[in-house]
Amino acid sequence: MSPHRIALLFNANKVYDRQIMTGIGNYLKSTRVVWDLFMEEDFRSRTIDIRQWLGDGIIADFDDPSVEEALSGLPIPVVAVGGSYADESRYPARIPYIATDNGELVRLAYDHLIKQGLCHFAFYGLPPLAGNRWAQEREQAYEQATGADGIASITYRGSPTSAGGWGRAQEDLIAWMHSLPKPIGIIAVTDARARQLLQACIAADIPVPEQVAIVGIDNDQMVQLLSRIPLTSVIQGAEEMGHRAAQTLHQMLRGGDLSCTRIVVPPVGLSVHASSRHQPLKSPHVMRACHYIRQYVHLGIKSEQVAQYVGISRTVLEEHFKRELNKSVHDMILEHKLEMARGMLEDASIPLADVAVRSGFTSLQYMYAVFRREYNCTPRELAKMPRGPA
Known about the structure:
By secondary structure, the chain is of the alpha/beta class. The chain is 46% helix and 14% strand.
């Protein structure tokens, strides 16, 4: 029997779409279903001539209304994937729909920032374009959450990202952040927007997370690689969405009527990193020092360099650290080195020598000695142990 010909209409340059496609692939492998998959060779979603395509089924990202319009009324099974809607009427009629839970994504980020002891909150979204309906839903979820708690909602949408307008957009973003009450927790609509916040804070010398704590959405590893300060991010259930979408289409191809199916998939959890680990601090010197350490600990910085950045003597800075945190500047540097190393150790493909260099240790031997002293085990032994709650 010939395999079913299935079109996947996704933009694989987005981590969310890639994760959905991973879920589809995992379903095919786990069930031994054989599909002949059609995707654009540059892995973008295009609906040109889709009505002339002689296939058996389609799984498509319906966050773009033009895709929904292009696929309406097709005589073959279509499964839609996209964001959830507070207004039920916004879902497409008689098409099975697998959704990421926009409300829960924002709720998870908001609750985390509350647990950090913050009282002020803001949301960094996207301009209200037709293809950004999911972003508008997340903005609305944020406003509902803060409104229910009697907290004033602060929202900034910024400008679309473009090379020509980036300088002005960053200036406007910095001006907005300077205007905010501090300390504050900001929920970014995506990790890409969260990275812009981190860049702006670094450019404006605003300590993260002492003054601005940031949470993104997507858990995009590329953003982590490109960010000086590790980003806390909500992990979408995108792989589960892809699995459920493939399962739904498989059942439809076997004759099942699932046209009224609607599945809302909750987030997997929260990947917590330095960008949101807010700790109330009174000393501006300690804030600036911690801000510098987070950015440059991987370069093997010393206490003297931190004091020079802050603009006071090392002795005075050590007094501030002792009074505020009951630890030394060296202790803080070491904590961040160990945290960075532990994060990299979770990826067994990274050589230990690279872990040592990239987390600021002078040598692999020194990293081993520190792990023995602090944890009474080797780095690899520690990586196999379950990590406690963040």
